[in-house]
Amino acid sequence: MNIQTLTGLSGISLLFSVILLRVLLSLKVKQQTAYIGAIIIFAVSFIPIFGISGNYYIRGLCNDLSITTLILMTYYVISPHDSRSQSRPLLFLITITGLFFYPAALGFGPIDPYAWGFLNQNQGLFNPLILLIILAILMYIAFKKQYILLLLCLVLAPFAYQTGILESKNIWDYLLDPVIFFYALVVSTIHNPFRKNLRL
Amino acid sequence: MTFSKKSTLYFTTTIFSIGILSLISLLWQLLNQQQAPHFLFQQESAPQQLNPEPLFKADFASHESTPEVHSATAIELDNNNIMAFWYGGTREGHKDVAVYGNTWSSKTKQWAQERVLLTRHATSEGTARYIRKLGNPVVTRGSDNSIWLFYVSVSVGGWAGSSINLSISADEGKSWSAPRRLITSPFLNLSTLIKGTPVHYMDGTIGLPVYHEFVAKFGELLRLNSSGEVIDKTRLSWGKTSLQPVIFINSPENAVAMMRYQGDPPNRILTQSSSDAGLNWTPPIKSQLPNPGAGIIGLKLHDRPQLLLAFNNDEEEREDMTLATSADQGKSWQIAKTVEQNRLAIPDKDKQFSYPWLLQTRDGNIHLLYTWHKNHIKHMVFNSTWLEKPLATASYFAKGGGKE
Question: Domain segments of chain A: what residues?
């Protein structure tokens, strides 16, 4: 098993663990018991059942999770009682980016922002350059505002891209994936900071 | 656990510095990248033998190992034999569908018995993912002369949920590597399919014409490095009507693409062109050639300045298989031969001819393979003399341009 496969499968197993951990904690299960359950499900998801393991099934469905998702899940494991001041800026940014990115990447229009993520000059220097500049600006904002979780994601995703730890050669696959986008969309909709104003 | 403000600031400053250095490194790589390569283009050579006798032979490449077969692709081996690939099983989408291969001897002019090359279990093991069904294969040569076999698999849903896998043979098709997954799409890596012949670039990279079917239907051209990783993609079209691109290379910079059409009538093959080695494409327009929402295939002949196209010459049904040639780089087409023609009172989906594949071997002969009545892969071998011979029966013109 190479490092890319191990990262991909471990990411899916971590997803199982985080979901179970948060469900158990929301049910007021003892923290120690919840963590033991999360570790067990992580290990069990690697064991083949009827020839295929649980993480094979889900990886077939949703492909590899991005570095951003892996960091957020790790944060939820380390800090099960989420400090919203850390996760909300990240989820808000993912929502905004995904709302622009996915429709365009799925063919609604002639522009394909996914192609910019290969970071080459074939379609011109402008688009990949803008992508890197936006990343730098977001990093600076996260640093100034001390959004540590957002900063970690913005720094470690490009870093992981250069190491090639995932199967993809496209930086978007390290920054974003549909699993975290839909999660962020739901959270951002429920906790919309503008909702109060809209009611007025 | 709490941290002091000072230690937090020290931590974030360190992380921020690493991030900026990482971005500077990416910028450096971006600025120092080589310019996009040109297409690998071989000027046509003189025919090996002037005015040879017309050659035409037809047989079946598959021998009923499975009730259904579909989507053939083929390549010439080092020993001048042909190796063909297709998918077969109880029916399309069934769990027992596998990718089959068979070899045609250039000496005996006979096909051997087909054998299973890749199953969904092997694909699941190789890609470390659950695989529900297999689909279209497409074959080409890598820059190291190994055989690269791309094929589609689905983990969930229909064909719109497809992804592409790659298996490589370094021993002329005797053994195949564990399949690996191509990452082609940001949305769960879903909905990238293949049908058209790959093209090659001067730097050894491979251009793989692909298409999307989820939500929208459009064509793309992927570029793969020598490790089989996707390193670039260009959109050929967008919207909901174009798929299965076929690319003709006319020069190192110029190419013409034709696509299957799946929109409102009139149903015609779509065509477009590029003058910068596939980086930018003109918007697709309808050609004069009809298309019943079916796959097409084409190639540039290497012994004369002509393009050859195989397609269904009808706007509604796949009841014929027709060959057309173009002497002006795809601007206009002339019907050369109709090699199959049903004359059924009521269209029958089990009597169709579809998904053609064309290959020209080093001896100048042309091989046409296609799905015959869904249960056989038909193979025809012919030469340019036969192709250019006047039509023996009534002429068929492209029905979009009027029928004689």
Answer: 1-62, 82-200
Establish whether the linkage from the previous residue to B47 is cis, with ω within 30° of 0. no
Q: How far apart are CA B98 and CA B137, in angstroms?
A: 10
Q: How far is B404 from chain A (nearest CA, A)?
A: 39
pLDDT score, position A188 = 87
Amino acid identity of residue A170, one-letter, is: N
Closest residue by Cα to residue B237 from B184, B293, B285: B285
The residues near A48 (Cβ < 8 Å, ≥ 6 apart) are A56
Phi, then psi, of A34 in degrees rounded to 5: -60, -40
Tally A–B CB contacts below 8 A.
164
- pTM, to two decimals: 0.93
Q: How far apart are CA B56 and CA B294, in angstroms?
A: 25
CA B289, CA B310: separation in Å to the nearest integer? 11
- Beta bridge partners, B285, equal B271
Residues of chain A in contact with residue B160, where contact means CB-CB under 8 angstroms, are none
Amino acid at A102: Y
In chain A, what residues touch B22 (CB-CB under 8 Å)?
155, 158-159, 162
Q: Is B19's CB within 8 Å of A106's CB?
A: no
Chain A residue closest in CA terms to B189: A63
The pair of structure tokens assigned to A17 is 């663990």
Exposed, middle or buried by CB within 10 Å (0-12, 13-18, 19+), for B166?
buried
Please tell me which residue of chain A has the smallest CA distance to B163.
Answer: A60
Considering only CB atoms, which chain A residues are within 8 Å of B35?
A: 121
DSSP B368: E
Instruction: Provide the residue type at A11 as one letter.
Output: G
Task: Render each residue's pLDDT in chain B as its tens digit; 404 residues.
Answer: 556 778 888 999 999 999 999 999 999 999 988 788 999 988 777 766 666 889 999 999 999 999 999 999 999 999 999 999 999 999 999 999 999 999 999 999 999 999 999 999 999 999 999 999 999 999 999 999 999 999 999 999 899 999 999 999 999 999 999 999 999 999 999 999 999 999 999 999 999 999 999 888 999 999 999 999 999 999 999 889 999 999 999 999 999 999 999 999 999 999 999 999 999 999 999 999 999 999 999 999 998 899 999 999 999 999 999 999 999 999 999 999 999 998 777 777 788 999 999 999 999 999 999 999 999 999 999 999 999 887 654 334 333 333 32
Residue B189 Cα, gap to closest chain A Cα (Å):
6
* Coil/strand/helix, residue B95: coil
Contact at 8 Å (CB) between A70 and A165? no
The two three-digit tokens of residue B359, written as one number: 């290959």
**Cα Rg of chain A, angstroms:** 18
Chain A residues lying within 8 Å of B33, measured CB to CB: 120-121
DSSP string across B293-341:
S---EEEE-SSSS-EEEEE---SS---EEEEEEESSTTSS-EEEEEEEE
**In 3D, which of A57, A50, A47 has the Cα closest to residue A12?**
A57
- Per-residue confidence (pLDDT) for residue B392, from 0 to 100: 53
Per DSSP, the residues of A117-142 read TT--STT-SHHHHHHHHHHHHHHHHH
